[in-house]
């Protein structure tokens, strides 16, 4: 470690965010540019280089966290970059988007604030691009084998990069007009600027990965054609089948899925649309769902100039401190967290009736009511107990001109015919069935990411892509030197 007493002499300092009043007027990333470098070496010094670094186990990628913390503390950025890239294809994505289960597993977090692992990671990632160290790594020779990757989210991109570097000819198919999946159209610009995605795609193209956009596999390209053209196929389409809320009034205009709303806002930032057709401007917005997608809708609605924004969470408000009985270290704890979007909503008082920031906790929707034109105008809700039983006399009504459903996803979208066309099976959870080697029952067809694991974190998505790439390489050549960080059955740490 750089400083054996660093964890005793330095407190935790996070990457400062720009003032709320400034950042809600634009779509730039929320953090102060350049503010990490003055503090990051000191923060890396807080790493204790534990004999048993639980941050490794908490991270499915197996990131070499103590190693690159020590290297950053010593200002050896090039070697730190090398160690970071050894386990993670896209640290500029994870450093911005991952909720950092590694920090929950930090040994220092037993009785102190954890090391700012995520901030150290993104500092290294940004240094990689600033110094020009992300050079393309094309293979020395081609294997003569071809692989189709269906889906261009983090799983598909990670698998494609690994397989291309192994010498296979890889084509990535994406149904949208641009590559990136949820990274492109699900993640708001203020959370991760698309410049980070574009740079990585440029590197992958220079390495030899080929991209085909606006192709819906199953319709534009049939499953039979896909299997005939390629020696192996990886299905990495994500879990995009959103959950519904079948309540009275659901048919009213103005009630939309979060993933109908967010892509349109991103298309505005891309310059494809002059304005969001579902804009929150001047409207009373209610977001149903307390997760990250709901928070993304919240930050987007605030920037669009909503009259009010309220987020409903059916769970109780978490404690600010870890519950050592329910969530003992090193599992990821259920604690009250203030995202950038929630900080903005709190400071701007977007939801006067909320319990905290913009959130109403223990809130369950009963029905929607509308006007004579068939547009939603009110949302009726009730408070529930920890068993989700309605509490008598707690019903209330919120004004609602725009309702966004952010209830998560149940599995792969089957409307394109890919699952049926390939003859794939679903398991009891409604996701793609596969064996211990990421293979489906269809010879040469593999499945990875949220489509097979279920809705998860970006680090799990990248780990799935890397592991599936190793399995495909082994299938094509009889062996592999590619890393395989996880098994299909691996799951996050739980109590």
From TrEMBL:
Keywords in alphabetical order: Amino-acid biosynthesis, Glutamate biosynthesis, Iron, Iron-sulfur, Metal-binding, Oxidoreductase
Gene3D superfamilies: Alpha-helical ferredoxin (1.10.1060.10), FAD/NAD(P)-binding domain (3.50.50.60)
Species of origin: Streptomyces indicus
Pfam families named among the record's database cross-references: Fer4_20, Pyr_redox_2
GO biological process entries: glutamate biosynthetic process
Name of the protein this chain belongs to: Glutamate synthase (NADPH/NADH) small chain
Domain 4Fe-4S ferredoxin-type: 38-69
InterPro entries, sorted: 4Fe4S_Fe-S-bd (IPR017896), DPD_II (IPR028261), FAD/NAD-bd_sf (IPR036188), FAD/NAD-binding_dom (IPR023753), Glut_synth_ssu1 (IPR006005), Glutamate_Synthase (IPR051394), Helical_ferredxn (IPR009051)
Keyword Amino-acid biosynthesis listed: yes
PROSITE patterns referenced in this protein's UniProt entry, alphabetically: 4FE4S_FER_2
MF GO annotations: iron-sulfur cluster binding; metal ion binding; oxidoreductase activity, acting on the CH-NH2 group of donors, NAD or NADP as acceptor
Highest taxon in the source lineage: Bacteria
